[in-house]
Amino acid sequence: MPVIIDNGTRGYYASFTAKFEKPFTKGFFASVAYTKSAATNLHDGSGDQPAGTYQNTPQVKGLNTPNLATASYVLPDRVVGSISYRCEYLKHLATTVSLIYQGSADYRFSYVYSGDFNRDGTSGNDLIYIPTAAEVQQMTFTQQVVNGIVYDATPTAKQQNQLFELYIQQDKYLRTHRGQYAERNGALAPWRNQVDLKFMQDIFVKSGNNRNTLQFTVDIFNFGNLVNPAWGKVKSTNATAILTPTFTSLTTAPTFRLATSQGQMVTRTFRDNVSTASTYSVQFGIRYLFN
Question: Does the residue 75 lie in any domain?
Answer without folding.
Answer: no
